[in-house]
Amino acid sequence: MSLAALRRAARESVSGLPREFWWLWTSTLVNRLGAFVATFMALYLTLDRGYSATYAGLVASLHGLGGVVSSIGSGVMTDRLGRRPTLLIAQSSTAAAVALLGFMHDPVAIAGVAFLVGMASNASRPAVQAMMADIVRPEDRVRAFSLNYWAINLGFAVSSMAAGFIAEVSYRAGFLLEAGMTAVCAVVVFLKLPESRPAVVTSDDGKRAVDAVGLGTVLRDGRFMSVVGLSFLVAVVFQQGSVGLPVAMGEAGFTPADYGTAIAINGFLIVALQIPVTRLIEHRDAKRLLVVSSLLAGYGFGLTAFAGSVGVFALTVCVWTLAEMINAPTQTGLVVRLSPVQGRGRYQGMYTLSWSLAALVAPLMSGFVIDRFGAAWLWGTCAAVGTVAAVGYGALMRRVPDGQPAGARAEAEPAVGDAEADVTAA
């Protein structure tokens, strides 16, 4: 492909998206560029503070539990208070909690503040996804979600490399840098992002539409909850890249450096290929994409059972990374299609919950299966779970109209140029 063709492809990938999206994208990128703590938390607790690996695992679990707790609450806040206030509260709270964590010495205090950090940092996700759905036209949403996912991985790749150098100087400096960059995100939201929540509609009996869409509405939505369940299955499989794979490689005699070499392929491929892959999948059938990505994820990890060298491990990472690049924007777009406009926050919160729960379940699953049956059974289980998810998506998507909001949710979308008239203040 010529340089001119590459430039044209890049221009087409980023054109047509509203200015508000790019400020939101910038906030996401800055946030991930400063995500140092998650990278070196285990090393900080074991090497710098001298705590056991068991205690470090407990702190990581509490951090994940905080995300589970906040998923639903932040979704409700997103609908009731608005997207912008929820983002401001979440990012300001994250900055304060991360800074505080750097000064904690008592093990109980460290565990408690880690739980708060998990709650605060996860609370922004439903608001970001709901705001993105509000401000981006339906036909551009897959591309927008993909660009946002690309920013997440680009920022995390850079911050992961920087974390090692920062830790050599001072772990506390890492906490304060992350707090400072998260505070910058809050400033960007405050200065550049208007509230995007659709105008509150009142019915003839005076009941607000936002009040009519409660958590019970979400839980009774069988089609959407099926998506949440399938998302959980896929997320459990993807989580094995960070929880099951390093353990299995260690038991097979590979070094941490070998694991680092193999898993680095994941971030490199996403940064290099996410935008081209999005151009290929943007207008394709969501059902086929979700089925294919589930199979690639399951059998990509399944192939790990036959890996005997770092090169083969890296090849399996390539397979499930392709699944990740296809699944992430497609599934997020499906969640938006199935969500009523006035309940996007709650629906996104429930979707976020599926990934938070997977982050808790996956380590328990991988440890139990490897200890009891061996690593080969874990990879076989991943292949089976991926197959179940693929069959589930195939059956579910037969009942979802292609390219249109599901069922009664086919509501008029505001034109991008008329956004100011169709949003309300927080």
Task: Jot down its keywords.
426 residues, mainly alpha, Growth Hormone, Chain: A, 2 domains, 76% helix, disordered C terminus
Superfamily (CATH H level) name of the largest domain: MFS general substrate transporter like domains
Strand count, sense and barrel status of the largest sheet are: none
What CATH architecture label of the largest domain applies? Up-down Bundle
Number of domains: 2
Arithmetic mean of pLDDT:
81
Structure description:
- Residues 403-426 have low confidence and may be disordered.
- The protein has 18 helices and no strands.
- The protein is globular, with a radius of gyration of 21 Å.
- It folds into two domains: 18-198, MFS general substrate transporter like domains (Growth Hormone, Chain: A, Up-down Bundle), CATH 1.20.1250.20; 217-407, MFS general substrate transporter like domains (Growth Hormone, Chain: A, Up-down Bundle), CATH 1.20.1250.
- Helices cover 76% and strands 0% of the residues.
- The chain is mostly helical and 426 residues long.
- α5 (83-101) packs antiparallel against α7 and α8 crosses α16 (310-337).
- It has helices at 3-14, 19-33, 37-48, 53-80, 83-101, 107-122, 124-135, 141-169, 171-192, 209-212, 215-220, 222-239, 244-251, 256-281, 286-302, 310-337, 344-372, 375-396.
